[in-house]
Model the fold of this input.
Amino acid sequence: MIRARLIWIVLGYGGLAAGACLLAPLVGSTHISLARAFDRSIPFADNVDAQIFFVARMPRVLTGAIVGSTLAAAGVVMQALLGNPLATPFTLGVSTGAALGAVLAITFGSSLAVSALASVPLASLAGAVVASAIVYVLATRPGRPISTMVLLLAGVTLNAFFSALILFVQYAADFTQAYRTIRWLMGDLDVGGFEPIVAALPMVLVALGLFAFLPRSLNLLSVGADVASTRGVDVGRTQRLAFLSASLATAAAVSLAGPIGFVGIVVPHLVRLMVGVDHRIVLPASALFGAAFLVGCDLIARTVLAPVEVPVGVVTAMLGGPFFLWLLVRKS
Amino acid sequence: MSAEPARRVVSLVPNVTEMLFAVGAGSQVVGVSSYDDFPPETKALPHVGALLDPDTERIFSLRPDLVIAYGSQTELENRFARASIRVYSYRHAGVDNVLQTIRDVARLTGHEAEGDRVVRDLRSQLDAIRTRVRGQPRPRTMLVLGRDAGALRGVYTSGGIGFLHELLDIAGGDDVFGDIKRESVQPSSETMIVRAPQVIIEVHSGDPPRADVLQRERASWNALASVPAIRNNRVHLLYGSYLMAAGPRLGHAAETLARVLHPEMFR
Amino acid sequence: MLRADNVSFGYEGGFSLRDATVVVSPGSLTGLLGPNGCGKTTLLKLLCGVLRPQAGRVLLGDRAVESMTRRGLARRVAVVPQETHPAFDYSVLEMVLMGRHPHLGAFQLEGPADLEIARASLEATGTAHLAARNYMTLSGGEKQRVIIASALAQATEFLLLDEPTASLDLGYQLEVAALLARLNRERKVTMVLATHDLNLAASLCDRLVVMRDGRVLAQGATTDVLTGDMVRQLYDVDADVAFHPRAGHLTVVPVRRLA
Done:
């Protein structure tokens, strides 16, 4: 019975995600004709429709699908790990670490001889890894389960400290650099080709692969750590795996497209409203719905004020805010 | 307003500092901004901050009778006004504004004649360039003001307003975003494909990087290989502080742009 | 046989349990009785392997609990905690099915057999009609019975309970007590329950382990151990302990606090 439900839901949401990915490249601020885009007789250099479809929109839609699914899944895992439906992939400081890396690269990158460090994606990945490592070391004791209270405190502390560092670096930056930092913080799916996607893909696949081991343990863990232990769950190992995989997923997503907020909290909530709370269903469904969701938000971002583009993080925030207001009203 | 020329000037605006030196008022400058490095004499002068972080104490300690500040620094201006220090309020705009500013600061520092001469020379320089490229086809040009290092992200370009846009116009190029009429635009890959510029010019205010880094930066554009400028290898990465200094060197900047757009007119 | 041999356990401040030896014989219904802070919860956690003793050993049969895998242990010992607060809105059936975890492979989904065991457990605790309900919307007594059903679904020889009736109204207290007695009798589940409720211990348990300040004062048959003297030792209270004909077991009536 559970197997049947799981299969149907995965197929359904998978269809939604696939549909979004297939349709989104067709729509945009410039009208293109699908027939023309696929017309092989026109040389690529002259076929603007094809150029727009394959070079501008496809990588963007692909990035949206990858980032959307990764952030949504990481959100589910984080919420289970912290036992709190209000947790997000950014709660434990991964994205603040990434932001610090990005700010440092933007502000000091041009004065660094090592050209690799000037790269914002690499620097933000490094920042994310450093932040996660600090939180991990602060919150874990070998062989013992992690106290979620300590974990949360470590994350909050790291967020505060790194945010202060970011402000400090911003102050030292010139106007252009400050503007570019703000722009990065709004998120951007236009990653400029397929290379950045290919670079991020291994991390994403590893993280999603690790996620596959978690759902049933997360169910038990979210009822209580001690109880889970008495039912045979290795609580310490589950917590560590959840933290590491969610941090890896978030680091990959944020270093690729910047910190796009609300996906990691709105999607899990919406999905739970639709399919219940069993993580074995919520996790894959959220990943698939997250892909469709972010691709849809990017579509809105590209078209609502065409030809001006709204940063996709602004669209997710504009949708996320009222959603939570509605949730709040509903609960009371 | 006193008609006495200012004897001690503090300038928070780097391009206006350049203007002061160009009109002969260099010896009257007692303090410059943190970003000042041209002309070389400014390196030895006290640096007092800039747009976001002006060090008012330091400025006061230099006992200026004229402070050049940004138009948006109204707080600062009020403070100086209360101390009876003259403030000249600078705002970024087009070429005419730059020339007018040169005249203004020349007058304020008692170098009116030199100011007029500098402006005349600049005008004739610009006219000469206009003449040289007249009649030539004007390539659709994307003037890139910034881009993430090593990637095709965070691109922002001229949007049809401002002195760089006007220099491009003088140099014989058509700003591909000229119709947008904004200070800057952040085009997406799609927008750049649709606008299909024939020439791409990137301006950087620093020194040119190592050859391998320069190559990598040029190669960043290859993701959009189908855009005419990239296809026909008309992507130019220009380096030099004079390129983005809205001051006495703008004639040099205009000429550099013209040479890139119409090399055959400069043989 | 589940036994603790000279186990000690302490936190930063000091020892919460010292040199405790307890023997739980199969089929018995043993109570760990004592005032708050006497160490009964710590002992319970040691018995089910959630905590490791700093001295001494806990043995299940002839194997040290420490050396067993969590899964292996979970198939033999189940625990009903004092309170359960799930972070998400699981249904009653989902809560009970969680008890099947130690019997399922890594990626295995619950099969018809597991569902059958879950339903039977719900039936046994009189909560079958609540299967589709959201656990958080149940009353205190219903919640406790569902948690017991979940532990039953684990199909273990031993069931450990921590203050199973502490937060319940009188009616539900009697209901849960009757349920536990029946399960012990009919399914031969060996039970250990930690409680500070003297009358619950008297009515339900055939064996008692009385504790105070981290030490075991006495253990044995309830009728032998539960005396007026013992109550005085545990609680500094003068009480009447007598067999109550209508109830059918010992009852404790506190009379007066002693200085």
